């Protein structure tokens, strides 16, 4: 396996001429940080990736600079790994073979929000900026990760999948959320390719292996005023039934439907005073107009309202989304470093699947659930409602060994729980890619030398830096 640990002087001089010497980081803690993401949630990835580092990080602020950098790296045969805010969870932006890390955060203009609700922006635009500007114009993001305050537009499309809003809108590839993606190829004379509508979907969640995203158009949702509410009950099954019914109801737009099994709520230090001992918690972010009906339903069911706070405009903390998706795992790992996690999609028989998992791995799995729409349609009241709501989640797992982690993943498959394995850096194993053949073809077209984030697309045979790749590193 080849590692490009230093850049040759000619390449360095070309990069300096392209972006300016002060925009190139050649060592120290900054280079370490720019070579890493949140891979360390996984003990498996921690072992595999701890020592990986780029030869240089190059900060790119516009299309011309990007073109020059990609051309220079391509002519020198040096790997290029794109990076947004570096909040990915699977070592997605960690360079396996050194070379250049491309810091795209300065390439960050929000170009337009159209009257019919489409945002067009450069890859480094922060999702928080997009959300704030969209809300000013009567729109909001259809879905965004719980890291929306920090993470980038390009990073979300290349590394993320969904999150806040997905209970109504599904993930980024659902419905018609993506309008277009423009990619730059990595070759001596980089070209631009614009993919529209369905065709754009093959470029999503490909970890920067299929070209560098330089502009994205995403459809927005009509802005809604939200209330953030926590509900508590000591009875898991009862709270689960009520939460599931709330997720499937047409109470108006929902942005989050999340559930935490005890003791997860005790890890949320800023919120813990609102909870009672041994309580399971449901977190809802819902249209303020739906709140009276929701509270009446909770009261009738004997479910306690633990805390409520409006979502402010312009957006300001507290954001209860800071406790959802992989933020939940973060709070838990901080409190108890022995935890790791899995990412799961449960079936319609989710209640039975929970019981099977609890019986087979007693005390090793703690449930954290997130409700999703796997598609979206316009409901009778003019709200978008999911036409199939599914229960997913990011359960915590008490790490014992790689073997036990694999047993849990295998057992999930056996009982029909779909796993996106977060303990691998291969994109094919971390997510679901029914269109992987199209993704490989896109890579061949836009990365003919195999220089973009090499080693991450497992089924793409042509990795010049690792002619005999290991085909699996499952835990
Ligand atoms: C606490 C926590 C919570 C999270 N919650 C969620 C969640 O709710 N939903 C979710 O989907 N994810 C979640 N994530 C993962 C991650 O935060 C998101 O996917 C986020 O959108 C990534 O954005 P980023 O700017 O940090 O991207 P990065 O981590 O910098 O990059 C992600 C991937 O995209 C590639 N990339 C970045 N920019 C470009 C570009 N312009 N062109 C080509 N490739 C590019 C990188 O090479 C890398 O492979 C979470 C992570 C953490 C740590």
SS strand fraction: 15-25%
Low-confidence stretches: none
User: Number of helix segments?
Assistant: 14
Q: State the total count of DSSP E strands.
A: 23
Average pLDDT number:
95
Radius of gyration: 22 Å
Q: Let me know the largest β-sheet.
A: 8 strands, antiparallel
* Structural class by sheet pairing and helices: alpha+beta
Give every kind of bound small molecule, once each.
flavin-adenine dinucleotide
Strand order of the largest sheet: 14-11-13-12-18-21-16-23
Overall shape: globular
- First-to-last CA distance: 21 Å
Q: What is the helix content?
A: 25-40%
Q: What would you say this structure looks like, in words?
A:
The protein has helices at residues 9-19, 28-34, 43-49, 63-76, 127-136, 153-159, 166-169, 236-248, 291-301, 325-335, 350-360, 402-414, 427-430, 436-446, and strands at 24-25, 56-59, 80-83, 100-103, 110-113, 118-121, 139-141, 178-184, 192-196, 212-222, 226-233, 254-260, 280-287, 304-310, 339-341, 343-345, 365-366, 368-373, 377-378, 384-385, 389-393, 396-398, 418-420. The model has no long low-confidence stretch (mean pLDDT 95). With 475 residues, it is α+β, with helices and mostly antiparallel strands. 28% of the residues lie in helices and 23% in strands. α1 packs antiparallel against α4. The chain starts with 8 loop residues before the first helix and ends in a 29-residue tail after the last helix.
């Amino acid at each position: 396996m080849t590692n490009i640990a230093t850049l040759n002087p000619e390449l360095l001089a070309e990069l300096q001429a392209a972006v300016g010497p002060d925009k190139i980081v050649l060592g120290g803690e900054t280079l370490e940080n720019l070579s890493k993401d949140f891979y360390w949630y996984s003990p498996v990835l921690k072992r595999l990736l701890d020592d990986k580092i780029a030869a240089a990080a190059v900060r790119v602020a516009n299309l011309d600079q990007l073109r020059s950098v990609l051309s220079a790296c391509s002519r020198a045969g040096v790997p290029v790994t794109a990076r947004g805010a570096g909040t990915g969870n699977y070592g997605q932006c960690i360079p396996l073979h050194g070379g250049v890390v491309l810091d795209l955060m300065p390439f960050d203009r929000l170009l337009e929000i159209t009257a019919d609700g489409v945002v067009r922006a450069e890859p480094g635009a922060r999702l928080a900026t997009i959300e704030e500007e969209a809300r000013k114009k009567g729109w909001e993001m259809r879905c965004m990760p719980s890291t929306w305050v920090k993470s980038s537009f390009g990073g979300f499309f290349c590394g993320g999948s969904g999150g806040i809003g997905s209970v109504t809108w599904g993930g980024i590839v659902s419905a018609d959320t993506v309008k277009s993606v423009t990619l730059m190829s990595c070759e001596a004379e980089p070209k631009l390719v614009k993919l529209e509508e369905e065709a754009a979907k093959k470029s999503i969640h490909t970890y920067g292996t299929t070209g560098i995203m330089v502009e994205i158009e995403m459809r927005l949702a009509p802005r809604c005023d939200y209330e953030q509410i926590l509900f508590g009950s000591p009875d898991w099954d009862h709270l689960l039934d009520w939460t599931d019914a709330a997720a499937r109801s047409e109470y108006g737009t929902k942005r989050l439907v999340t559930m935490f099994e005890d003791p997860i709520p005790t890890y949320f230090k800023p919120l813990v005073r609102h909870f009672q001992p041994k309580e399971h918690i449901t977190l809802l972010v819902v249209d303020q107009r739906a709140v009276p009906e929701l509270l009446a339903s909770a009261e009738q069911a004997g479910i306690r309202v633990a805390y409520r706070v409006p979502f402010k405009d312009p957006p300001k903390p507290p954001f209860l989304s800071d406790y959802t998706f992989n933020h939940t795992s973060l709070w838990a790992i901080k409190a108890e470093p022995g935890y790791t996690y899995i990412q799961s999609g449960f079936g319609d028989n989710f209640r039975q699947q929970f019981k099977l998992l609890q019986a087979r791995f007693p005390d090793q799995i703690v449930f954290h659930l997130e409700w999703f729409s796997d598609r979206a349609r316009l409901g009778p009241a003019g709200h978008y409602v999911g036409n199939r709501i599914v229960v997913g989640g990011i359960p915590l797992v008490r790490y014992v060994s790689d073997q036990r982690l694999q047993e849990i993943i295998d057992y999930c498959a056996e009982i029909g729980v779909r796993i996106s394995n977060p303990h691998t850096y291969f994109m094919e194993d971390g997510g679901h890619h029914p269109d992987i053949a199209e993704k490989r073809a896109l890579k061949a077209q836009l990365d003919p030398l195999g220089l973009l984030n090499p080693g991450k697309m497992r089924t793409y045979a042509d990795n010049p830096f690792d002619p005999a790749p290991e085909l699996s590193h499952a835990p």
